[in-house]
């Protein structure tokens, strides 16, 4: 048991030390608004862990200080995490006011519960208030967990919307990949659910002899460190103005992953064609321009090609090109370009000179930016890994 206590101390102290280093590093660096939100997040998380440490060692004054600055974690971290994610894409002017409104429960809790509770714990005063709080603590904690989960779900929805809209303008995700945020959110949700289930269990059954909160704290430390590792170096993502408008709206245009050649060759028009937009003649003309740029000039081989650059080549705005792709061809820019890249890779694998080149060199020549993205997209589009596809093609040649 003594070894277990030493291990707990080590993990808590290590976690607080890392969080403290994150805060110091961010304060001393030239940081943007999203990183300032991380300072708030890590500072509150530091005092949350400090409370666990003080509780285990029965240090009343330290526990009081920790409660003052770390109590109500879910009411703070949920909104901060959500708006920190949004701040990576949207301007600060769209973040500050809704963030402050979402923190009203945290401020109320801090004023009417955390402040008097910290005094009661630190100086052993307000005994009546402290007793009332002990009775209500489980309900406050569950409300806090629910509030946190609501904002985590909102974060997932925003991330899903962002990914869909990002595909409208970029052919390569690269450093703008925010999938790491998805893993972070799932991790937090899992830990909170564990905490909720254990708390509900203890409402109806004998209390668990060891402190379940310690394991929850361990899990949270892992998430805090992961956020620090990824979040401190995540740069702001620049998107065209018209996409930012959509991101601020509740609606997102649907996408399709159908083969692009079938889309461009088709002369059919979608029934959801917006009024007063492209005429049938304009659509035919733009389809021809698009085919020429992609099939003849092979612009898709440019690994950094984006919607704006392609729109400039076509002589229209990026907003108009996005409308053409989404409304008339029913495909995202991301799928459009990568469909062409995959088709070229497949053709070169089938060619007689395929053995002279590695799969990676073929991928780079076709416009892919990295081995990881090439493997992932190829498997997604064909159902096979590049090496599997090449082996199947070689086998078919032998059989033939």
Automatic annotation (TrEMBL):
The entry's keywords: DNA-binding, Membrane, Transcription, Transcription regulation, Transmembrane, Transmembrane helix
PANTHER family: ARAC-FAMILY TRANSCRIPTIONAL REGULATOR
Domain of life, source organism: Bacteria
InterPro entries, alphabetized: Homeodomain-like_sf, HTH_AraC, HTH_AraC-typ_CS, Tscrpt_reg_AraC-type_HTH
Regions crossing the membrane: 6-25, 37-55, 61-82, 103-126, 146-162, 183-204, 210-229
Native organism: Moheibacter sediminis
Protein name: AraC-type DNA-binding protein
Single GO MF annotation: DNA-binding transcription factor activity
Lineage: Bacteria, Pseudomonadati, Bacteroidota, Flavobacteriia, Flavobacteriales
Annotated HTH araC/xylS-type domain residues: 284-392
